[in-house]
Design brief:
Length: 239
């Protein structure tokens, strides 16, 4: 029976992995479809180019990517989806921007309200939170003790970056939204590997949450929001 139990555990773990992978691919397909509405050529559509590269970074199959593009350009029929941002507050009053892509905004907002309500949060009025943030291009580079940080930071600035922040073994590089692709290409030309990149809403004045109970509540809120299929990204002003 021990062999059977072990196999059951392996099957359960694989099923969880497949479900998670399916959710990631589903979210990426929506992002690609929405961006493809501005044109199906990634060479002239920077938003689509970023979406495709992110999809490739999670090993999304080429057929899935092409199908999502065709849905966006109208070559394939599909449900009407739209990108909607919601503004909210979490535990300790932290500000949140919740990016969604949905085919049913009534369902989405109802589920977001329910999640926020269960985790000491609430939905805010349009404009109540977004002014605390600014859109930025964000690139992340993994670093090690072998790297010469002074030289590396000079190379990054020379590539067109506006700001650099160090977080443990990660360098977070900030750019203007319109310069994200240029900076990424410049870094890769220099032989510097970019581990992730995206357009994000960065807080102008990050807020530190010191209370451990509030931190735990916020983490549970993020986990619950992340589980909602229509939610693509969650931004907060928590440092």
């Amino acid at each position: 029976m021990s062999g059977h139990s072990k196999w059951s555990k392996v099957k359960h773990q694989k099923a969880v992995t497949d479900v998670q992978k399916g959710k990631i691919f589903s979210k990426m397909a929506k992002i690609i479809t929405v961006n493809a509405r501005d044109g199906g050529d990634p060479e002239t559509n920077s938003g689509l180019r970023i979406a495709i590269e992110k999809a490739r970074s999670v090993n999304m199959p080429r057929d899935n990517i092409e199908r999502a593009i065709k849905k966006g350009t109208g070559e394939l029929s599909g449900e009407k989806i739209e990108e909607i941002f919601y503004e909210a507050y979490g535990p300790s009053g932290i500000a949140l921007i919740i990016k969604t892509i949905t085919d049913n905004k009534n369902r989405t907002i109802s589920e977001i309200k329910n999640i926020l309500g269960k985790h000491s949060g609430r939905l805010g009025e349009t404009g109540s939170v977004k002014w605390m943030f600014e859109e930025r291009g964000i690139l992340e580079l993994k670093i090690s003790e072998k790297d010469n940080l002074d030289d590396l930071e000079m190379e990054i600035i020379d590539a067109g970056a506006e700001d650099i922040k160090k977080r443990d073994s990660i360098l977070e590089v900030q750019t203007k939204p319109t310069e994200l692709n240029n900076v990424k290409n410049n870094l890769e030309t220099k032989g510097i590997k970019v581990d992730s990149f995206s357009l994000e809403w960065a807080p102008k004045n990050p807020v530190e949450v010191k209370d451990e109970k509030s931190k735990a509540q916020i983490e549970k809120l993020f986990e619950a929001l992340d589980e909602q299929d229509d939610i693509q990204e969650i931004y907060s002003n928590m440092s």
